[in-house]
């Protein structure tokens, strides 16, 4: 198609909007409402995801290892001990138990180096972001600080008289809470593992909240895109009926279907673009007011900034607007050209 | 070009055993056989419901025949793909009974519209529209709006629009139906003049006086059949 023709057709599309301005304005209004709701849904979803991300980071798993302390305090180990002695005695000279009656084969982690090496093995698992070695002494200090704050003297017996009952541990942080159980199962397979302390319920809840938000968001977006499509289609349909005479003349003199379609598609897409720009501005204003109020009320600053989302929102709005405008007009005018296009009959 | 018959003697319009029945069951045309040569002027007459409109719609390929073969300006219409229809229509000009002028455009733009939609350049549009308006005697009315013109003048604008793309065939559907008798003669005189320059003209009319006075070939339709085909202007 020639450049002159394209210019002419684009001009006709712009003219359509002006001649049909009330309907165009109504369409822009409804499209803006749809886009602002989509934008808000996305911003809310981002904020919830950010909050969940923080929760996820705090949802660490403590993997306690079978070290000397474990052998010392584990009832199970005490029961199993005679059997171990029996099996080893047949093959080699039995190791002499220490003052607590424990031999090295009673436990799996014999040194800090072994514990750290085990941490490295856990770190290699999928979905594991980081693993931090926590010695039994550090573990006890943490417990004291978090649970016994200000009452240390009452619990000094833990070190002095009875020793430290905690085993050394690996502090594991996971990436995706949806794979929480699977990762736990993999960690449990290591023979060095005694117990795993985790908040499995919380992980499941976080994971289901995330899933719920994603699904709800997608539904909202899909429904609103459909509404946008219907609105643009109706506007184009009105324009088309207003220009029925011109279409019939165009067809009669030999204009191609695509030539007839272009002004309507330009009109539809332009309505989409105008709506996208207005939505972006309106959403920016609304979000700013809302976040300022929320931040002041809750005393937090931990909210997704509009600036971080501005381009992606604009791209999405333009995408929805242009897509709805293009498809809406394409379908409506195509239907008309195929079935109702009348060149010779009285209009 | 697809569907085009390339022979020197190809007629402007040829119907061979053409029948058309609408989905409602109405038999609009039945076994129509006709040949209209290039450069002919033909009146199509008949009462309402005789099949005149269907005949025109088949020529424009607005409707498709159920049986038979139709050739127009070298295009074989019965097997023609939909995408070829614009090419066929660019070989013909159409004059409507109700003028079909766009009220928001002036005379010049109404005529230019027919050229713009087939992708003509601005220069061509200016040259050809001026010529077409001069041909129908409306050179001085280019900036007037359609509603400022009389019925006869409006129909002449319609005629200029039909001629502006230099068609091989002009189809006029009762072009004198909405104008006074004097203007009717003027319109048909213009069509005759166009025909004299080599354009085939096909005109549907109810006006027996015009048919008698202009002494051209007359095809009479009745109940979907051709009941008379007189070469010399007798429509009885």
What can you see in these coordinates?
The complex is a heterodimer of chains A (347) and B (236). Chain A is α+β, with helices and mostly antiparallel strands and 347 residues long. Chain A folds into two domains: 3-56 and 206-340, no CATH class; 60-198, 2-Layer Sandwich (Alpha-Beta Plaits), CATH 3.30.70.3040. Chain A is 71% helix and 7% strand. Chain A is built from twelve helices and four strands. In chain A, helix 2 (21-58) packs antiparallel against helix 9. The longest helix of chain A has 43 residues, at 200-242. Chain A starts with a helix and ends in a 7-residue tail after the last helix. Chain B is of the alpha/beta class and 236 residues long. Chain B is built from seven helices and ten strands. Chain B has helices spanning 52-60, 85-89, 107-116, 122-135, 151-163, 181-196, 208-214; strands at residues 13-21, 27-36, 41-45, 67-72, 75-76, 92-95, 169-173, 200-204, 217-222, 225-230. In chain B, helix 3 runs parallel beside helix 5 (151-163), helix 4 crosses helix 5 and helix 5 (151-163) packs parallel to helix 6 (181-196). The radius of gyration of chain B is 18 Å and the shape is globular. The model of chain B has no long low-confidence stretch (mean pLDDT 89). The A-B interface holds A 1-2, 4-5, 8, 19, 245-246, 248-257, 259-260, 342-347 and B 53, 56-57, 60, 62, 83, 85-90, 93-94, 96, 98, 100, 102, 104, 113-114, 116-119, 121-122, 161, 165, 173.
Please report the first level of CATH classification, the CATH class of the largest domain in chain B: Alpha Beta
Give the helix/strand class of chain B: alpha/beta
Oligomer: heterodimer
The residue ranges of chain B in which pLDDT falls below 50 over 5 or more consecutive positions are none
Instruction: Give the termini separation of chain B.
Output: 41 Å
Look up the CATH topology of the largest domain in chain B.
Answer: Rossmann fold
Number of strands of chain B: 10
Number of helices of chain B: 7
Mean pLDDT over the full residue set of chain B: 89
